[in-house]
Structure formats: C-alpha cells, structure tokens
Write a structure and sequence with these properties.
Helix content: 25-40%
Shape: globular
Number of strands: 20
Radius of gyration: 23 Å
Number of helices: 11
Length: 414
C-alpha cells in the first residue's frame, strides 16, 4: 500500500478478510468465511463483526495481534471517523453507501492488494493442500471402486451418488463440508454445465454411457475441486472420440511450460486446441484459482478465452478443466487442481510449470488410444504412477487392488 501512497484500506470481500486475519467461519454455505469488514489504518486495525461469533480463543488471538473489534453495523461510523489523509477502496468490491461515508481527503480507487497476495500460497498452505488432496484422493478411490457395481444393481440415482461420495469424504479427518454443491450429471444432464440434481430432476443412473461428477470438499487444511467423467458401461464411438479430445486438452494444459508473468488468457488456447481442430469448443473457463481452506473459486488468476490480465507466479493454484457438451446427449469434463511451480531460469527469464495436486485416477476405458501422442501417454502414465504411489500406503488391500488396475500403464499401439 505504501508504494501507491495509501494510508489505509477497507477490506470488504469475505475471503480476503478471512485470509488477512488467518481466521475461518461458517456464515456462507460451502465457503468457510464470516460476514465482516476489516478497516486497516497505519497504526490501527478494526474488525467489524457480530461479536457473538467470537469465542474466547479467537478474541484472545485478535487482542494479541492488536486488532480491535467493533460491531458489524458500526463500519460506517468507523469510516466516518477515519483520520488518515487517504484510503484505498476497491471499486469492484466496496459498496456505494460505505464509500459515501468516507470523510478523508482522498479515495484511491484501485484493486485491493489482498487477492494478489492471497493467490500465492505459502509453504504452510501448500502443505495443507497436499494433506487435503491425499484425504480427498482416498475418498475418491473408495467412491470410484463402489460406483460401477452399485450402478449395476439398478438402485442408484444422481442424488444417491452425490450422497455416497459425500459420505466417503466425511470419513476423512478435518472434513468440514462440501466446497460447492456437487454436480452429478448422467448422460444428457452432463451437458448442463452447472447442473444440480433436485428431487424433480433426479434420474436413475444406468450401467451404460457417461456420468460427469464435479465435486469438492472443504477440509480444515485445504480445499479440493475435481471432475471425473466415468464410462459406466457401453459408450458410443462419438463419446469415446469426444472424451479423448477433452483428455488431450487437459494433458496439454497440464504439461505447459511458460514465462513467469504470463496471463491465463495467453495459456487458455492450449487446452482448447484439440477441440478447435475438430470445430468444437466449450464456453466456460479452462481454470480458476482455488483457496487454501477458503472459497473454491479464487482470483485474480483465471484461464479463459476472455481477457484476464492477472499474471501467473509460482505458488498459485489453478484448475485444469476443459470439457465438451452435446446438448440433450452427454457432457464430458476432466479436472485436476494444479500448483504453479518454478521450471527453470534461462537467458529469457524465469519459466514456470504445473504440478498436479489432485490424486485420483482418470478413467481410461473411454480413451481412443490411437488419438494420443507418445508424450501424452507418458504424461498420463506418470500421473497415474504418482497417484498410486502416493495413495497406496493409505488403502486396504481391496482398494489397493482396484487402484492398481485403474492406474495401470497404457501402451502405445495397444
């Protein structure tokens, strides 16, 4: 803030307040945040919140950090008595009424500095992500092993699949709930990008075709977001071709090497290229940041066709989730959460790459192997080897046998 000569700021976005204070709450479904404002001055910081939410431990913590506490409804009074020369307000996140309460000499209207800081994960946050992904991977393996036999019994629906997956996650330590409402889209419902089954739309899931499952969890040490499209039985040649095109785009993005400071818009086409070559496309973003036990959608980094200027740096998370949707027929999406890490230094500057945080097999049954390059097969085999090696010590023999089969290497020319 000093570099832009700002004497203070009002933090009004809930996940920015939570991250700045290293606190979490439960005021918003699926997002571990609390309703509050944070007024930061040169020598004074005030949290505006319903004080009844603060237990003794949190109150003592805030006091130790010299953070004052005032009632949520008094934030306008705090702005009115604010005595610094100027204040930084983000016009995209500060409401008009509060902006009008500011009585200082100048308002600096520019983006809050918090999102860019929050986006680059520190070592503790990265360890938390890896711990959460390990637990999520164990739950996913248990679910995927259960899935096909259960569907073959003829008793499962989209909602029952959601409930079963959530129950496996709930068995894991530090589970705090879903990170968003699960998408289970069977066949034609999979083509509805943000579909959520209801009692009115819920349908039986049968042992044929494709089911798309986009889900995630909040653990106290990290947030997960994963999509897998599973062949439940017989699939059509068209579905297998489409699945393989999406997989190629997913792998292309995961293998990227790029300069530090590149934007998500500059990286986006790599995931779409296999589809574009066939005259196909998807109309959502390729990737978004993920919070550290925070909101599952986090910026400022995004990967999408529309211009997004936020630069990528080491430590940022991003999802890799290309898809293809044929209205009234089926949908396909494959998604991992990735971590941006250093690649190497060259005469042209610092270069970055991605490493996968998500630990879960990718269904190989619908792959048209002849469509994959040797490099793509190598990447998939290496990923599956990492998944098996990491999860194996935490599984019983029954699930270990299943995982070994699910991650067995593909061979070019098979």
């Amino acid at each position: 803030m000093r570099t832009v000569h700002a004497d203070g700021t009002l933090v009004s976005t809930l996940d920015d307040v939570a991250w700045t204070l290293n606190l979490r709450g439960s005021d918003v479904q699926c997002n571990p945040v609390f309703v509050a404002y944070l007024l930061i001055e040169q020598s004074r910081t005030t949290l505006y919140i319903n004080k009844e939410k603060l237990g003794a431990e949190v109150a003592a913590y805030l006091k130790s950090q010299q953070i004052e506490v005032a009632e949520y409804a008094d934030v306008d009074k705090g702005l009115a008595r604010y005595a610094e020369y100027n204040i930084l307000l983000d016009p995209n996140t500060t409401n008009y009424t509060l902006a009008q309460k500011v009585m200082c000499q100048e308002i600096i209207a520019m983006p809050s500095p918090v999102p860019a800081l929050k986006a680059v994960k520190n070592d503790a946050e990265i360890r938390g992500f890896r711990n959460a992904m390990l637990k999520d991977g164990i739950a996913m393996v248990k679910f995927l092993k259960w899935l096909k036999p259960a569907v073959e019994s003829g008793t499962e629906t989209e909602i029952s699949l959601d409930e079963k997956l959530t129950s496996f996650r709930a068995e894991q330590p530090l589970f705090r709930g879903k990170s968003f409402e699960t998408i289970v889209g069977y066949e034609a419902h999979g083509a509805i990008v943000h579909y959520e089954a209801t009692l009115e739309t819920d349908i039986p899931v049968k042992p044929r075709g494709l089911v798309l499952i986009d889900s995630g969890a909040q653990y106290q040490d990290g947030t997960t977001d994963i999509t897998r499209t599973i062949a439940l039985g017989e699939t059509t040649p068209e579905q297998r071709t489409a699945y393989t095109l999406v997989l190629k785009g997913f792998i292309n993005f995961a293998m990227l090497k790029f300069p530090d400071g590149a934007t998500g818009t500059q990286l986006d086409a790599t995931a779409r290229l296999p589809l574009w070559r066939e005259g196909m496309n998807y109309l959502h973003g390729t990737g978004h940041g993920v919070g550290a036990y925070l909101n599952v959608h986090e910026g400022p980094q995004q990967v999408r066709m529309q211009w997004r200027p936020a630069p990528f740096h080491a430590g940022m998370t991003i999802t890799d989730e290309p898809g293809l949707y044929i209205e009234g027929e089926y949908g396909i999406r494959i998604e991992n959460t990735l971590l941006t890490v250093p690649y190497r230094s060259t005469a042209f500057g610092e270069f970055l790459q991605f490493t996968s945080l998500t630990l879960c097999p990718i269904d190989t049954a619908p792959i048209v192997l002849s469509m994959l390059s040797a490099e793509e097969i190598t990447w998939l085999n290496d990923y599956h080897r990492m998944v098996y090696t990491t999860l194996a010590p935490h599984l019983d023999r029954e699930h270990l046998v299943w995982l070994k089969e699910a991650t067995k290497p593909l061979e070019l020319g098979r």
